[in-house]
Design brief:
Layout lengths: L1 H39 L3 H12 L6 H17 L3 H9 L8 H14 L3 H9 L9 H14 L3 H7 L11 H16 L5 H10 L3 H6 L2 H25 L4 H52 L3
Length: 294
């Protein structure tokens, strides 16, 4: 009789525990739905505040916390707040089914922030990757190597490309094209650009790859030089007219030379930024395909 009562009591307490757990799971599910509602309605501040509050709940299981970290990472990632996205993605535990995906998005966010060494370390730390394994990790690594202009490691890692992965075969081909574009970048000298503009106003900017600026620089400098020569021939070297004309000409002439020197680095940065944007886009699209975000 006592044994029977004991069994009944144990069963009763177990049923209470199961009911409590089910209620907790349902509550968490409702909270996640509410967070999703806030996010879909672009209530970012309310969404992130709500998530931060929920994460501190001591009653949450490790799986539930991982779900919140993953969700928060996605919210900040979509809003391009990459530092915050990195923080939350990195807090997803390695026991979570979302760990590899979170690590890949963290690595991508690090690459966006030009933290290339950390991005490489994050990718290489992943033991398994969704859908395509080693080749996808190598593809992401190849993008980071190109961003850091490490073409040697890019050549090594890209040897494993098979070009037959449905998720990113076209992006693999595009990555090779971008590597070729980087190799074709010519190193132009700012000093040479300045010397060219000293001889022919605006020529240095044309050399730098800015022909329109070169032409617009040439015309006013030439016009001012003609005016200065005319003032010299008519009024003489010490005349106020010549001094004023020569002064204005000198300002434009020196500005053109200095501008030509700077235009080389400006143009180089523009080209590099354009290539980097294409690399990041090329990395992002297959990452979204694999994760089901597009």
């Amino acid at each position: 009789m006592k044994i029977r009562c004991f069994v009944i009591m144990i069963s009763f307490f177990l049923s209470i525990a199961d009911t409590s757990k089910a209620q907790q799971n349902q509550t968490f599910h409702n909270q996640m739905q509410f967070a999703g509602y806030l996010f879909k309605n672009n209530l970012l501040y309310d969404c992130t505040t709500f998530i931060k509050t929920q994460i501190t709940d001591p009653s949450l299981s490790s799986d539930q916390k991982d779900s919140l970290f993953y969700f928060a990472g996605n919210v900040f990632y979509k809003e391009e707040l990459y530092d915050s996205a990195i923080f939350y993605f990195n807090n997803v535990s390695n026991k979570s089914e979302k760990f590899e995906e979170s690590a890949l998005f963290s690595a991508y966010s690090l690459a966006v922030n030009s933290k290339f060494d950390e991005s490489i370390k994050k990718i290489t730390s992943i033991k398994t990757a969704p859908a395509s394994g080693q080749e996808f990790r190598n593809f992401q690594l190849s993008g980071v190597y190109l961003l850091s202009r490490d073409t040697s490691n890019f050549r090594i890692i890209s040897k494993d490309f098979t070009f037959n992965q449905n998720y990113f075969s076209s992006e693999e081909k595009k990555m090779f094209q971008l590597a070729t574009d980087i190799k074709k970048l010519k190193h132009k000298s700012g000093l040479l650009a300045g010397m060219m503009s000293a001889v022919v106003p605006g020529l240095g900017k044309i050399y730098a790859g800015k022909p329109k600026q070169g032409i617009t620089s040439f015309l006013p400098v030439i016009l001012l030089s003609v005016q200065a020569l005319e003032a010299y021939s008519k009024a003489g070297l010490k005349s106020p007219r010549f001094i004023l004309s020569a002064g204005i000409f000198s300002v434009f002439y020196i500005a053109d030379i200095w501008g030509s020197i700077l235009s080389v680095s400006v143009k180089r940065n523009e080209i590099n930024n354009e290539i980097n944007n294409q690399i990041l886009f090329n990395m992002r699209i297959p990452l979204h395909r694999i994760s089901g975000k597009i």
